[in-house]
## 1
Amino acid sequence: MNFELTDQQHAIVEAVRSVCAPFDMHYWDERDRTATFPHDFHRALCEGGWLGVAMPETLGGAGLGILEAALVMQTIAESGAGMSGASAVHMNVFGLNPVVVFGSPQQQTRFLPPLIAGQEKACFAVTEPDAGLDTTRLKTVAHKVEGGYSVSGRKIWISTAQVADRMLLLARTRSLAEVGKPTEGLTLFYTALDRERVEVREIDKMGRAAVDSNMLFIDELFIPEEDRIGEEGRGFEYILHGLNPERILIAAEAVGLGRAALSIATEYAKERVVFGRPIGTNQGVQHPLALAWMQLEAANLMVMKAAARYDAGLPCGAEANAAKYLAAEAGHNACQTAVLTLGGMGYSREYRVERLLRESYIPRIAPVSPQLILCFIAERVLGLPKSY
Ligand SMILES: Cc1cc2nc3c(=O)[nH]c(=O)nc-3n(C[C@H](O)[C@H](O)[C@H](O)COP(=O)(O)OP(=O)(O)OC[C@H]3O[C@@H](n4cnc5c(N)ncnc54)[C@H](O)[C@@H]3O)c2cc1C
């Protein structure tokens, strides 16, 4: 057992740190305040080759593992970019895993290089207003027509749809009544986001204003046959395949976010003098910060274990879910502790911890809620009855 990063992994962290350095806290505050997508940050990461970190080398990627991708995402969040920076590239870094694994060679050649080169952006359109976490109940339908499908329905919370060129879309090709199991009859597409047929309406939300989240109203969108990923009716299975690495990446981001907040709070505690001494002299201030550090580092061990198992081809469902739960809670606690450590200044925008706290809810809620992770661990690890 070795807990040290390799020289190459250290080099990745250092290189990503230097790409992020010019995009300081002022940059992210401005993006948050004006709700503008960080296109120049996206471009800088692309020019560094980081968007293709986990994509096949044959298509212009670096061909590295999920552990390296997690380090990239964590370093981005930890730089102070938080979820604003991480979510701006998250989908490009790993979201197209179903295309990498289940797409035909022609589809991979057509879809992946423009993404790696930063010429196209993608969004992930799964969640629906009436289905929630029960994905198999989604109502978006894809009817067979000549040469492809006609798709209609609604999606909610779809991040980056304002700037995306294409979307990975899950829709029903056979109704629930026609299939043996609810997981059957769902089909996956990677297709152009045609704004003539898809109305994209932004949701006004609590944080991460730099990266939009949207309602999609899809009205008879034509999707050509060649944009269907894999076999008809097996889309749910394809999406499931990418769930563990997706949880690992978001967990790594949550740890990075928490570390950014903890670092601001620790510096403040060393410098802010009240009652004639730095507030960090008081155990009442030190202990929550020390606890936040321990929680973040413990969660990170689970993130790295889950990533290492995934890269080794071992089962990692329990570890990936546990990592996502532990990291999201630890990240949130670190942000909350940071706000309280700064007292009144924690509530001002000047010290940025309030932005990080607002963003820390995202890895808790998405892509799966803490309750559902506990249900999963209870059932799959402890062998208790399925409760959902
Ligand atoms: C900022 C943001 C960005 C997002 N980006 C995307 C995106 O790009 N693409 C996309 O497809 N989706 C995206 N999502 C959606 C996200 O994945 C969902 O919000 C999340 O999966 C929760 O689903 P829901 O909101 O429908 O909650 P619901 O399913 O309505 O659940 C509400 C609450 O009830 C609880 N609950 C429900 N059933 C049970 C049960 N049986 N036992 C215990 N508790 C239960 C849940 O845990 C949750 O706390 C995003 C969400 C946010 C907030």
## 2
Amino acid sequence: MGLFRLLFWLALIIAVVWLCRRLLQAKPKKRQKKHLTKPQPMVRCVHCGVHIPQEKALPHGERWFCCQDHLQKSLNSER
Ligand SMILES: [Zn+2]
């Protein structure tokens, strides 16, 4: 009986250690999803006055445009 108990506890300890290792290995993967969404700066289209996020706006010099069409129209009107 003594040997059976010893083997039982040994198997239990190995199982617990294996489970702990699996849990520890799974944790770091969750950290990669930490992408802080920063508030996007808004810019105003010179042609139509629409406010759009700077990321989507088209820059031309110091001015911003909401689309390629408005950029061209604004450039054409200057000539
Ligand atoms: Zn526009």
